User: Which sequence fits this backbone?
């Protein structure tokens, strides 16, 4: 439309109508006010760039509801935006041959906020602004084509229909807030349900004091909140978990980096990948981190609110996990004390090393429930370990050849743990291959700061032992070392009590005890009592020191002349007694004669001895040790009477 065409333009003031209220209805009508309404009172100029879709929807709905005869009479109006941009063509501007440019007319209505009209050829064009309720802000314009002689009643009808379009827009506009409110209500209900779910889960988690139950609740909570996520829990090696979705946290260079980072930092870590994203959350309590929850999302990335709920569950699970762990540790301490008490009670009931080793092996097998338990004793003279007790029946005679990796223990005096022999190389592992062992814990048995042996517990299952088992074995080994030290001291004291310090032979009470035991387990036996001839004269001539040396020389000859099972003891003074189990007096006489000759030949100064022999056999109903000694002593007296340096057998033994 050109400037030469605008002289035909005239402004139509609707207020000149016979019904002024109807004329001003479109621009002056106020909306119904509600003080408690949640919908904003009206649109502002800041809303104009964002309401185009509502204007279009209202226009489409408005055209749908206009009666057909009205459309036929007035035609379809064109719709323009608040800035004069055509939004929908009318029936008139679809005819290209008319050539009418409505831009000036639309801008005039936007500027004035009133209905405007202009004439073009034989047609009149009317632009009706669509204004807001309160501020009369133009947000759309309708443009009609009318006849040049159109009437005010037609203008009122046009503005009335425009008013319907305004009301339709506000319905769409208000529906936006209603939909938002409904979405907010649904979201609030959804969040409330999730909060209730999270609270129930947290409460359930805190009710459990078992590690497995806490981990199961974590998995259940993640499944409810994030059903599309794949969850895995990584825990430290200290735990023995049966859940297949719970894995061991291993700090290896090729292991999951995000899991290690979350465990070390104790924070939430994420990593985006081509096939989704990973999120790791640390299971931590007041004392530290105990594991990591890793979530894998293949497609949908979780919303921050979902992660917040998961983080709440993880935080609660971390605290519950710590409580469960502390509860386990308390029970473990109680059980550990019970094990220590049982072991010490059992091994302290005896002072014999062999019994201590056997009892300790049985207790260790019961405590650790392992397939294999072995005790090796270290012999300083042989400079190697020897098998003294085990809980398996296989005979491993060559075990000393297959334990070369234990030889470092006497040097460092430290225990060790092998989680998996297939992954760790600890010297030569022939020992593992022989016994099919994958897991091993071992500790030295130390008594008085000296290595006395090694206790070894093993199993064919890898990672069978926990670090707590390892620490428990160390404590049990300490108590076993004390028991071994006590038994060793007892053996040493007993050895000192049973031995004569001068001659190295047994003492008289030990000989009495052995003869009494032999009489209950053997059929016969002989006793020789040897006396050094003229021993008082030797002491008077050479002195008591020489007398002691003579006794030592005689004792060495006797010790080298008897069998391993024979018992030689210092009877008293210069008298020495020898007991021969399962030996008749005639055979004992031969041994006594050999001893007599050797003493006379090998002593310096040369001396002689006299001997008396007594015997007991099955024909004796019962002969006491004292009676047997009395017979031998009487035979010795007869030998002395016969001129010394001779041997005499008691009459009842002949």
Assistant:
């Amino acid at each position: 439309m050109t400037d030469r065409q605008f002289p035909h333009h005239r402004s139509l003031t609707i207020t000149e109508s016979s019904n002024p209220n109807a004329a001003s209805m479109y621009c002056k009508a106020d909306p119904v006010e509600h003080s408690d309404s949640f919908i904003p009172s009206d649109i502002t100029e800041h809303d104009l760039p964002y309401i185009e879709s509502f204007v279009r929807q209202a226009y489409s709905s408005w055209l749908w509801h206009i009666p057909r005869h009205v459309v036929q009479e007035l035609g379809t109006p064109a719709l323009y935006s608040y800035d004069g941009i055509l939004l929908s063509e009318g029936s008139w501007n679809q005819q290209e041959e008319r050539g009418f440019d409505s831009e000036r007319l639309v801008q005039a209505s936007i500027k004035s906020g009133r209905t405007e009209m202009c004439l073009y050829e034989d047609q009149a064009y009317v632009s009706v602004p669509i204004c807001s309720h309160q501020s009369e802000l133009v947000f759309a314009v309708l443009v009609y084509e009318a006849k040049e002689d159109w009437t005010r009643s037609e203008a009122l009808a046009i503005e009335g229909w425009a008013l319907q379009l305004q009301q339709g827009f506000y319905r769409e506009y208000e529906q936006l807030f209603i939909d938002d409110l409904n979405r907010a209500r649904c979201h609030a209900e959804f969040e409330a349900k999730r909060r209730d779910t999270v609270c129930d889960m947290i409460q359930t988690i805190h009710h459990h004091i078992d590690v497995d139950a806490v981990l199961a609740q974590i998995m259940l909570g993640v499944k409810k909140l994030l059903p599309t996520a794949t969850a895995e829990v990584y825990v430290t090696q200290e735990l023995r978990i049966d859940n297949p979705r719970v894995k061991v946290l291993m700090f290896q260079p090729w292991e999951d980096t995000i899991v290690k980072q979350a465990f070390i930092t104790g924070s939430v870590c994420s990593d985006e990948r081509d096939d989704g994203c990973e999120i790791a959350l640390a299971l931590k309590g007041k004392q530290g981190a105990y594991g990591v929850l890793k979530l894998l999302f293949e497609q949908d990335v979780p919303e921050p609110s979902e992660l917040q709920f998961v983080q709440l569950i993880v935080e609660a699970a971390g605290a519950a996990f710590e409580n469960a762990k502390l509860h386990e540790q308390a029970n473990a301490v109680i059980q550990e004390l019970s094990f220590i008490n049982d072991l010490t009670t059992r091994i302290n009931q005896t002072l014999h090393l062999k019994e201590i080793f056997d009892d300790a092996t049985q207790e260790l097998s019961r405590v650790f429930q392992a397939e294999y338990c072995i005790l090796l004793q270290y012999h300083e003279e042989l400079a190697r370990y020897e098998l003294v007790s085990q809980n398996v029946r296989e005979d491993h005679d060559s075990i000393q050849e297959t334990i070369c990796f234990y030889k470092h223990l006497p040097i460092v005096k430290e225990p060790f743990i092998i989680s998996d022999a297939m992954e760790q190389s600890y010297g030569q592992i022939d020992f593992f291959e022989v016994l099919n062992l994958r897991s091993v814990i071992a500790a030295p048995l130390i008594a008085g700061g000296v290595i006395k042996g090694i206790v070894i517990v093993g199993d064919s299952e890898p990672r069978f032992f926990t670090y707590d088992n390892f620490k428990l074995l160390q404590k049990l080994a300490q108590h076993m070392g004390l028991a071994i030290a006590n038994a060793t001291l007892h053996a040493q004291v007993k050895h000192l009590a049973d031995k004569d310090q001068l001659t190295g032979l047994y003492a008289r009470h030990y000989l009495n005890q052995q003869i009494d035991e032999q009489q209950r387990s053997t059929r016969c036996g002989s006793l020789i009592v040897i006396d050094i001839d003229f021993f008082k004269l030797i002491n008077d001539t050479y002195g008591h020191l020489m007398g002691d040396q003579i006794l030592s020389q005689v004792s060495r000859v006797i010790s080298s002349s008897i069998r391993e099972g024979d018992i030689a003891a210092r009877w008293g003074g210069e008298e020495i007694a020898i007991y021969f189990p399962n030996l008749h007096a005639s055979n004992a006489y031969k041994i006594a004669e050999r001893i007599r000759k050797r003493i006379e030949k090998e002593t310096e100064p040369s001396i002689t001895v006299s001997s008396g022999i007594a015997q007991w056999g099955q024909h004796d109903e019962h002969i006491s040790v004292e009676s047997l000694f009395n017979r031998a002593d009487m035979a010795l007296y007869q030998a002395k009477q016969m001129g010394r340096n001779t041997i005499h057998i008691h009459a009842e033994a002949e």
User: Anything to note?
Assistant: The chain has four domains: 3-178, 208-329, 348-496, 499-653. The first strand starts at residue 10 and ends at 11. Confidence is low (pLDDT under 50) at residues 1-35.
